[in-house]
Amino acid sequence: MNILYDERVDGALPKVDKTALLAELRERLPDLDILHQEEDLKPYECDGLSAYRTTPMLVVLPERVEQVEQLLKLCHEHQVPVVARGAGTGLSGGALPLEQGILLVMARFNRILEVNPSGRFARVQPGVRNLAISQAAAPFDLYYAPDPSSQIACSIGGNVAENAGGVHCLKYGLTVHNLLKVDILTVEGERLTLGSDALDSPGFDLLALFTGSEGMLGVITEVTVKLLPKPQVAKVLLAAFDSVEKAGRAVGDIIAAGIIPGGLEMMDNLAIRAAEDFIHAGYPVDAEAILLCELDGVEADVHDDCERVRQVLETAGATEVRLARDEAERVRFWAGRKNAFPAVGRISPDYYCMDGTIPRRELPGVLRGITELSAEYGLRVANVFHAGDGNMHPLILFDANQPGELERAEALGGKILELCVAVGGSITGEHGVGREKINQMCAQFNADELTLFHGVKAAFDATGLLNPGKNIPTLHRCAEFGAMHVHHGQMPFPELERF
Amino acid sequence: MSQTSFDASARLLEQVNDAIAQRKPLRIQGGGSKSHLGRVLTGELLDTREHRGIVTYDPTELVVTVRTGTPLAELEQTLDEQGQLLACEPPHLGTDATVGGMVAAGLSGPRRPWAGSVRDFVLGTRVITGQGKHLRFGGEVMKNVAGYDLSRLMAGSFGCLGVVTEVSLKVLPKPRAVANLRLELDLSQALQKLAQWGQQPLPISAACHDGEYLHLRLEGGEGSVAAARDRLGCETIGLDFWEDLREQRLSFFSDKRPLWRVSLPNNTPPLLLPGAQLVDWGGAQRWLKSEAPAEDIRSVVSHAGGHATCYETCDSPFQPLPAALMRYHRQLKAQLDPHGIFNPGRMYAEI
């Protein structure tokens, strides 16, 4: 079923008179930059999930919090839907615009307001790029730990909205673990501070609830992140295996040895070959799987852990274990992994990147399942994943110019996510639900759970104007989609008419 | 699983549904070890202790799923046998502490600034809601951004949003090496040193100033702990100090004046408040024994960017919320607990 907003199953949207709205915005917010011509709106019709596009009614580019505040008040007054967007690097269509809504672009909020080394925090505007925070903190030997692969471009506001992760998550946590405070504007244009400069705050943990809420509960106007001391050293081991099962088991063995790597990544043969052709990282191209295990911290500990991990990997049946000889080789090992997606892009006209998580022990079975599905749908799948925390990124290779291939890729992707749910995992580890996985939410949650999610939304945004249609599907959508979670044998939505 | 494992969720659900039908509030309680926190409750007792046992535990997954009536000590012992721990070091504050109480109170021990809070280790929950449904949120995986994070919201909500029946927690390996140090420094010097050290990759995992000495715990590999011990000082103290601090058994806590927990930005200078103070969390948590009026304490603490919680029975134990924030608390409570049956008034009279 198409994932673009469909009023029939996603709910009716308010009808907005574009001309009247534009006139009023110009009158009440004379210094607000507004785009309204077709050719100006086009560049904003999608985020990183470019297969789905909708031209927004208007795009606004505020520079000051007061403008956002006034805009939200006006939109609330006139019942105009608002979709907030940062750098637009999201891969799940979380910032996909609406034809009947305003796209609120927060990219101009790009100032680092404060780097406080003794307090070990940085206060930044939401449009600041993830990597720019670490760069600003670097003179104090501090850094911001969460490192999504898009960190050179993605903005911190989007990281908070999606609870972004990355290679370092197992050891250093997700975005939610690295925040102190978020200033938001509610749909009514009311300013709230969630969290504080202290480590905790009175009341419910709304900071935790807000993180990963995909722009549904408020608009982020400022973020205070924790900074950590930079690890003294980081070393990387590369281990080759003649089977993905062995590599998967080795991951569990490393954890069982009491070692928490800074990064622990796995690639299968197709991904290894693509990355090697592109980056020349020195990967063993005949291996069925490789593991990259980074150990970071104080020198003496890292040295000891490298020896321990080497032994574990050898015992687990690695055909080869290499320690990056120097920093240049370490960077090269990582470059292969970090460029795995574009590398796969070179061997296929198009690819579709999935993001699901599973308990690590289920890895061999899930990889077998993916191989079977790949054959069934006639599309190749390359596997790259954050092995340490069970976050898989199967890349489905297809050619959008071949009739039906995009649809087959989508269907295969959906099946892979359902497989993740079936083994106790999740349909999204770090990319978010957005519009992309709106249907698979029906597989992971039952009607009562989805209803409670809608209740949470209603507590913050009773009229549903913020980012409508994202994150939580309506029960009608689930009924139509048909892939429902049957809980304890009870058919969900018995009250709903079947389409 | 152990013989003491028992799934009493059906009974708990029935009791909740009865309470909903009769619109009668419930007072959710495990071992009662943290019942002195928060406002005084009436309501019918919903005792969670029968619902106990570890549901799944696979050490290589670093995840344990446990029923919330399980004694905290039992969970910790099981983890210890596998060389793992709850890194947030939750206080028991009594021999009967349960896992549910740990989650509901959301209190963390001395390791908190370096390892994270109870909330940071919550991966998933099963919750009986105010609609009388037993639902599942989050899961047993480290990364999961499907839907709203209701599991972490439950941590520290004092049972006001639902009955948590099961929780999946991230666990970590125990550190290979530990050392306890004591340095003679006054508080200002200690806070300055901590701010400095905080910017360096040192294996500090606890830091408390007792008015006379700065106590430090180092945890990590043998090499890093030995190097840091040599660098920072070598007077070692007993291992019991941190547990005594966490369980409020140090002599500081026997002072008869009311106890306050003050949460502050870690680099806040010494607080000028009447009474005795004990600084924990490297400066970010300060225990205060004081008879000063609540408003005075809260005014000083708010000014410094923090908040103060009174650990005595009183009408306003938690720092009052700004009006706008309270409105969203009430709206959230109304959605999750529309009949107001879960611990009404435990945190604030309005919720």
From TrEMBL, chain A:
The record's listing under InterPro entries reads: FAD-bd_oxidored_4_C (IPR004113), FAD-bd_PCMH (IPR016166), FAD-bd_PCMH-like_sf (IPR036318), FAD-bd_PCMH_sub1 (IPR016167), FAD-bd_PCMH_sub2 (IPR016169), FAD-linked_Oxase-like_C (IPR016164), FAD-linked_OxidoTrans_Type4 (IPR051914), GlcD (IPR004490)
- PROSITE patterns, sorted: FAD_PCMH (PS51387)
The Swiss-Prot or TrEMBL record annotates one GO molecular function as: FAD binding
Indicate the segments forming the FAD-binding PCMH-type domain, all copies: 52-230
One Pfam assignment = FAD-oxidase_C
Question: Would the keyword Oxidoreductase be found if you checked this record's keyword annotation?
Answer: yes
Phosphoprotein as UniProt keyword: no
Give the enzyme's main class according to its UniProt record, as a single word: oxidoreductase
Q: Which cofactor does it need?
A: FAD
Q: Which Gene3D superfamilies match?
A: 3.30.465.10, 3.30.70.2190, 3.30.70.2740, Uridine Diphospho-n-acetylenolpyruvylglucosamine Reductase, domain 2 (3.30.43.10), Vanillyl-alcohol Oxidase, Chain A, domain 4 (1.10.45.10)
Keywords, comma-separated and alphabetical: FAD, Flavoprotein, Oxidoreductase
Q: Which GO terms describe its cellular component?
A: glycolate oxidase complex
Annotated EC:
1.1.3.15
Protein name per UniProt: Glycolate oxidase subunit GlcD
What organism, scientifically named, is this protein from?
Metapseudomonas resinovorans NBRC 106553
UniProtKB/TrEMBL annotation, chain B:
Which keywords accompany this UniProt record?
FAD, Flavoprotein, Oxidoreductase
InterPro entries, per the entry: FAD-bd_PCMH, FAD-bd_PCMH-like_sf, FAD-bd_PCMH_sub2, FAD-linked_Oxase-like_C, Oxid_FAD_bind_N
What the entry lists under Pfam families is as follows: FAD_binding_4
Q: What is its EC number?
A: 1.1.3.15
Ranges for domain FAD-binding PCMH-type: 1-174
Gene3D superfamilies named in the record: 3.30.465.10
Q: What class of enzyme is it?
A: oxidoreductase
Show the GO MF annotations.
(S)-2-hydroxy-acid oxidase activity; FAD binding
PANTHER family in UniProt: D-LACTATE DEHYDROGENASE, GLYCOLATE OXIDASE SUBUNIT GLCE
Query: Know the name of this protein?
Result: Glycolate oxidase subunit GlcE
Recorded name of the encoding gene: glcE
